[in-house]
Design brief:
Structural class: alpha+beta
Strand order of the largest sheet: 1-2
Radius of gyration: 15 Å
Strand content: 5-15%
Low-confidence stretches: none
Largest sheet: 2 strands, parallel
Number of strands: 2
Order of helices and strands: HHHEE
Mean pLDDT: 75
Helix content: 25-40%
């Protein structure tokens, strides 16, 4: 398992390659054969209302599979998006590759 600093370094390098490429995000991901994408945004709290801001900005409704942990704030969003919620094991993140 890679540590967080290694993952951050790789993400930073990929973002820099994307910026230099001049391609759209989608074209770059296709060229690099990237299957997953992660998004982040500064939000006021962890409510579904705040989380919905990220979804609205980045995810096409029902068209894309979204994988989240089982945070209760995601539950109300399942009616608008195709969300797969994964339970964490013993308090550890089930999505350790991005958390």
């Amino acid at each position: 398992m890679r540590n967080n600093s290694e993952v951050r370094r790789q993400m930073y390098e990929m973002i820099e390659r994307w910026k230099r490429s001049g391609l759209s995000r989608k074209s770059f991901c296709e060229k690099e054969s990237l299957k997953s994408q992660a998004y982040g945004k500064l939000i006021n709290d962890y409510s579904s209302k705040e989380l919905e801001k990220i979804f609205d900005a980045h995810i096409s409704k029902k068209d894309e599979q979204v994988r989240t942990d089982k945070w209760t704030g995601y539950s109300p969003l399942k009616s608008k998006w195709n969300i797969e919620m994964i339970k964490s094991e013993k308090g550890k993140s089930s999505l350790s590759y991005i958390h």
